[in-house]
Structure to design on (494 residues):
């Protein structure tokens, strides 16, 4: 449930590199924790994001969850489908549930992200704690 | 999860059922077992079972019991007969709400108050301080398991397990009997707006009672329900949540609980303040609103009318039954009328909303 070609953040976002662009979403673990997604507040196209700063909000029935940028750069595309079908985050977190595409301003930042192995180990620590 | 949280007699069952646990009022309680929406809709369309053993129970006995209760609460407990239940706020001298509670009359000299979990110790102290007639006051919360069965199929399920005629128990009445062979106080009450019961048993029989009811609930296609869905269910009915919608800085009149204040019953704590507020008119009112866009109002969000900050959201959530987002806020009287357009500030952005009639949801039962 954690694709190995993706990079992950401690805060449970994933990033998929495609040249100088990354696609961003939240992990299967995150969607299970959030559950029942009813609303996604998306950033604007053209907005400048900073790595590890919040840029979107996912709301469940119970609460709002901040989503953090895995890398700095400009938002070049947002997943408009989420406006009408926010449940895509639950149903298909790595596919239809993607959130934004970022044009990287500092591709080296991706090295700060975790591999799937690191993310899994980190999760096990979190669950045990 | 912080240490020193209290656990109900059903804690291990919740863990076995895979519930996600949260801290609530000093207790480690099930937030949800599956999906909040599924649990919510199970109660609206079928049946759900809840562990409410964190709630507090305070027994008041003796010839001084009724005079003490009458002094403490705003509603009139003298109208109760044996086996009847009353909802009431308990107020401070200034009319603020110490707690909202249920009064059960077992006999002329034995009553039980059911109070909010987070207020149990405060209430117990408050009641003892006001006890000047020698009533016998005891906090029996730890001895009692409380399980709610709510939804249109709750009566059928309970009928099959109980040794008393469940259908003969009227709303806000109770009977003592056995459920699944376990001595139980069967109360036709609830916090969901649906038909249903709240069942009190000895803490040591709580797990047995749960297992009997849970099996029947699952067989009927129902669900165990956590605190998250309990919150959305009560919000759709505009049932107040203590600490959110009511508290020591709000009065029953402001909260829309005028019907629970018996001005004609004689003296009670807070009567002068509430009488004054009634005579001068309240300045604000707990109003229901629905969002007109996709924004979700949450507790403490600011409410605006034009440039004017006019109040704060006390509760807010998506309504699983209605499919739109609802909330409650104390609004100045002039902006609390139905169809008034207001705005809720959510993460720095204004979202339009409209004051609507409550309850938000009308049960078909």
């Amino acid at each position: 449930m954690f694709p190995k070609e993706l990079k992950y953040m401690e805060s449970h976002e994933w990033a998929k590199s495609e040249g100088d662009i990354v696609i961003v979403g939240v992990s299967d673990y995150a969607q299970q924790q959030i559950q029942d997604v009813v609303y996604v507040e998306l950033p604007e196209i053209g907005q400048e994001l900073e790595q590890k700063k919040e840029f979107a909000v996912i709301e469940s029935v119970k609460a709002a969850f901040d989503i953090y940028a895995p890398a700095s750069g400009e938002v070049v595309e947002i997943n408009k489908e989420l406006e009408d079908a926010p449940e895509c985050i639950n149903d298909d977190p790595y596919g239809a549930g993607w959130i934004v595409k970022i044009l990287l301003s500092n591709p080296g930042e991706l090295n700060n992200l975790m591999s799937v192995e690191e993310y899994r180990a980190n999760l096990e620590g979190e669950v045990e704690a | 999860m912080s240490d020193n949280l209290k656990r109900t007699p059903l804690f291990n069952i919740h863990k076995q059922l895979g519930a996600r646990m949260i801290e609530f009022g000093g207790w480690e309680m099930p937030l949800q077992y599956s999906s909040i929406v599924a649990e919510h809709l199970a109660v609206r369309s079928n049946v759900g079972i809840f562990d409410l053993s964190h709630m507090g129970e305070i027994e008041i006995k003796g010839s001084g019991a009724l005079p003490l209760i009458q002094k403490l609460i705003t509603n009139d407990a003298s109208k109760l007969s044996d086996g009847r239940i009353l909802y009431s706020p308990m107020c401070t001298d200034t009319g603020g709400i110490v707690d909202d509670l249920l009064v059960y009359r077992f006999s002329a000299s034995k009553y039980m108050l059911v109070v909010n979990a987070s207020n149990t110790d405060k209430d117990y102290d408050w009641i003892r301080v006001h006890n000047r007639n020698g009533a016998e006051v005891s906090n029996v919360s730890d001895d009692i398991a409380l399980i709610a069965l709510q939804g249109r199929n709750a009566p059928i399920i309970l009928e099959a397990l109980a040794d008393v005629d469940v259908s003969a128990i009227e709303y806000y009445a109770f009977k003592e009997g056995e459920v699944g062979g376990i001595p139980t106080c069967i109360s036709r009450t609830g916090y969901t707006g649906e038909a249903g019961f709240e069942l009190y048993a000895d803490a040591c029989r709580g797990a047995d009672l749960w297992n009997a009811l849970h099996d029947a609930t699952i067989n009927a296609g129902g669900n165990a329900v956590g605190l998250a869905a309990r919150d959305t269910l009560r919000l759709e009915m505009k049932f107040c949540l203590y600490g959110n919608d009511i508290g020591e800085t709000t009065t029953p009149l402001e909260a829309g609980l005028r019907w629970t204040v018996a001005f004609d019953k004689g003296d009670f704590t807070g009567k002068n303040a509430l009488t004054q507020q009634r005579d001068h008119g309240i300045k604000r009112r707990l109003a229901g609103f629905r969002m007109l866009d996709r924004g979700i109002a949450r507790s403490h969000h600011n409410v605006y009318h034009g440039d004017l900050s006019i109040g704060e959201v006390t509760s807010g959530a998506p309504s699983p039954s209605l499919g739109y987002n609802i909330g409650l806020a104390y609004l100045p009287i002039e902006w609390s009328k139905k169809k008034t357009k207001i705005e809720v500030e959510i993460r720095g952005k204004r979202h339009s909303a409209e004051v609507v009639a409550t309850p938000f949801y009308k049960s078909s039962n």
Summary: The CA atoms of residues 295 and 351 of chain B lie 6 Å apart. The interface with chain A takes residues 31-32, 35-37, 40, 228, 231-232, 294-296, 298, 317-318, 320, 347 of chain B (CB under 8 Å). The helical segments of chain B are 11-16, 36-45, 65-72, 120-129, 154-161, 206-219, 227-236, 271-280. Chain B has a mean pLDDT of 97.
